[in-house]
């Protein structure tokens, strides 16, 4: 006998629409070389819908792979949702992979477009001749970095100009098993292995991050994902923040101890997530500072040294929260 309850796809547009409808006045802070940029979820949602129009205008196929080569920023978050919410597949490229590995994964994933931060274009440009099916290259101007002369014949499109010329689109995903994003893991021998997340897996992971006995992400949080957005979907924190309406603090390119500590203190961060090397550099910068807003410091990527965790306990009153997951498990 079948039940009679409604059957709603567990799809990313539902997460997006919660922030758009219920939390339009909450928002995102992005650290830049010139200070911080702020945008509300309402403004972000409007731009994200127009970005869906950009993908249509560029002729990206219905399930085309949309690659990013970027830091943690509000623009990157727009891509996090515009690609899967229009049926495309987000592919976050790890900026720290060896050149030959980047070539392999761009070609293996069959990326049609790459959105790249200006400060990272110098790393990507020498590899453009090795990308077999790349159709478009879009620049997100974060204010720093020279534009290489040789782009292998690619026209360098401007993100903001494309957005200004696009119309907003409606988001609809009927099949929760549809691919939403891809991450390649280099944790094994041979070439990196591609992991394809579904809308359902992303939705369920988001709900898991909101449960009390995990991170318990909630509307009142101010979340700082120092973990890169190309590292297992930022451990799910970007999706969880949008789902709950928590404020997001994006660190941009400066991940130094002083810069991260300044954000923690200045923005009254409640959850800050990163790898052990980040927290080793941040600890001395927090000495004597007001960290009373912090309630959790998730740390993953490698085992947390006990001495580091205890040093945080002594200085902030909080031990480091040991997180564990795999790229293959969403994470």
Whole-number total of structural domains: 2
Task: Kindly estimate the percentage of residues that lie in beta strands according to DSSP.
Answer: 15-25%
Per CATH, the class of the largest domain reads Alpha Beta
Give the neighbour order of strands across the main sheet: 7-6-5-3-4-8-9
Rg computed from alpha carbons, rounded to a whole number of angstroms: 19 Å
Q: Low-confidence segments, ≥5 residues, pLDDT <50? A: none
Write the CATH architecture name of the largest domain.
Answer: 3-Layer(aba) Sandwich
Within CATH, the superfamily of the largest domain carries the name ANL, N-terminal domain
Helix and strand content put the structural class at alpha/beta
Note the main sheet.
7 strands, mixed
How is the CATH topology of the largest domain named? Answer: Rossmann fold
Helix content: 25-40%
Tell me what the structure shows:
α8 links the parallel β10 and β11. The chain has a 7-stranded mixed sheet with strand order 7-6-5-3-4-8-9. A 5-stranded mixed sheet has the order 2-1-11-10-12. By secondary structure, the protein is α/β, with parallel strands linked by helices. It has 2 domains: 41-197, 3-Layer(aba) Sandwich (Rossmann fold), CATH 3.40.50.12780; 199-322, Rossmann fold. The chain has helices spanning 12-22, 41-57, 74-85, 99-109, 121-124, 159-165, 199-209, 237-244, 257-266, 276-282, 306-316; strands at 27-32, 35-40, 65-69, 89-92, 111-117, 136-140, 156-158, 179-185, 193-198, 222-225, 247-250, 271-273, 298-299, 321-322. It is globular and about 55 Å long.
